[in-house]
Amino acid sequence: MTIPSLQRSTFAARTFAALRYRNYRLWFFGQMVSLFGSWMQTTAQGFLVFQLTGSPAYLGYVGFAAGVPAWALTLYGGVVADRVPRRTLLIVTQIAQMALAFILAGLVFSGIVQPWHIIVLSLLLGVANAFDAPARLAFVRELVDKEDLTNGIALNATMFNLATTTGPAMAGVMYNLVGPAWCFMLNGISFLAVIGALWRMRIASGPVAPRNASAWRDLREGLSYILHEPVVRTLIVLVGATSCFGISFATLFPAWAVRILGGDATTTGLLQSARGLGALMGALLIASLGRFQFKGRLLTVGTFAFPLLLILMTFTNRLWLTLAILVASGLAVILIMNLANALVQTLTPDALRGRVMAVYSMVFFGMMPVGALWVGVVAERVGEPAAVISGALAVLGVAGAIFVAVPQIRALR
User: Fold this and answer.
1) Has residue 8 been placed in a domain?
2) Which of 287, 305, 355, 373 is buried deepest, with most CB atoms within 10 A?
């Protein structure tokens, strides 16, 4: 006979296994506060841009500016992440992002903000992210044991999407009540939580690339590993396609809220929050499965479900139904991103993780601006629904090609 309380205890222990580690707890709660602020800024900034310009294409320009540095600097950021303590690098990048949030708040408070200001600040934020992302992705392995890596990554997604669920909704309300500047100011303050958490950690020294090797040689070593590992290579291609042609639809949320749903800034926040709620549910689902052995099959389900749900969304202009579909699509996309991330890190040697995750980051974050640019331009010319359908069909095509050509993905455990 199984005792119910013991069952619940075992379920909780499996779902939140990574929180047993002190350093991971500090990271989890510090990042959650910071991400709440970041999503407030993302939502408020998007609606502010749309208010200033009235153009979905300009939304794409801002997204493109934020992602351009990913192409130029992320690979070098991965080399740096393998050469210096990742905690130190993260503290520097978080301080830089905090300063940019305060600058944007000051511009809006003073009443002098212009669209080009937002583009420049987005570009600088992209520079900080180019160094932050490889270190942040590889850092999880320093916080938990290898067998709990998938759980740690799932809980990372949980905190990210808990912030996505609440931050945008709060931003929409605050935008209408007190204006966007306070959203940016609170984001700046929120960075103190993660900076403090990083400062308090006790991190053992990890493997680092030898400093007598050139950065280019280090980079080639990481690229060579990816090129000669077909499963890792395929997973990174899948992430890039999903980022460019699938996730990019969120760029259109301000325009979708106004033109398709007849709403305002609050509606934009609800759209972001619905997607975040679904992703939160997906992350908790993965975390609750513990050390499960069917990651490849679950990943495959996500690759087909996500684009089909995006296509379905274009056939309704009812808010409640759109929100329901966004919840489901958020769950599906987290199956792709979470499991691809965990599998790539599991398959990659420790000494190469920073560089491999730099390529992963460059593809993930670098394809976002490309996606933002093309989806904004296409929406300007043929409408938002047609743009979303085009992207969804592209993701569906990639999923089908991988299903046929790389059956090893489905066998991953």
Assistant:
1) no
2) 355
Angstrom distance (rounded) from CA 239 to CA 359: 11
Per-residue burial over 20-38, b = 16 or more CB atoms within 10 Å of its CB, e = otherwise: ebebbbbbbebbbbbbbbb
Mean pLDDT of the chain: 83
Q: Which two tokens stand for residue 108?
A: 């809006």
Q: Where are the beta strands (DSSP E) in 33-97?
A: none
Q: Which domain holds residue 327?
A: 20-200+214-411
CATH number for the domain including 137?
1.20.1250.20
Interatomic CA distance for residues 123 and 72, integer angstroms: 12
Instruction: For residue 289, give every residue at least 6 positions away whose Cβ sits within 8 Å of its Cβ, in sequence order, or none.
Output: 14
Beta-carbon contacts of 358 under 8 Å, excluding residues fewer than 6 positions away, are 74, 75, 76, 77, 78, 79, 81, 133, 134, 222
Residue position matching structure tokens 């592209």:
394
155 occurs within a structural domain = yes
User: Over the stretch 72-110, which tens digit does the pLDDT of each residue have?
Assistant: 787 788 788 778 888 899 999 999 999 999 999 999 999
Q: Is the pLDDT of residue 116 over 70?
A: yes
Q: Is the pLDDT of residue 125 over 80?
A: yes
Go through 324-338 and write b for each residue having 16 or more CB atoms within 10 A of its CB, e for each that does not: bbbbbbbbbbbbbbb
- The answer to whether the pTM exceeds 0.85 is no
Question: What is d(CA 64, CA 47) in angstroms, rounded to the nearest whole number?
Answer: 16
Tell which residue, 233, 235, 270, 271, has the closest CA to residue 250. Answer: 271
* The total number of structural domains that make up the chain: 1
Of 196-210, 223-237, 335-349, 364-378, the one with minimum mean pLDDT is 196-210
In a domain, residue 6? The reply is no
Query: By the 8 A CB rule, do 395 and 403 touch?
Result: no
Answer yes or no: are the C-beta atoms of 77 and 397 closer than 8 Å.
no
What element of type H or E holds 191? Answer: helix 180-200
| Residue 254 resides in a domain | yes
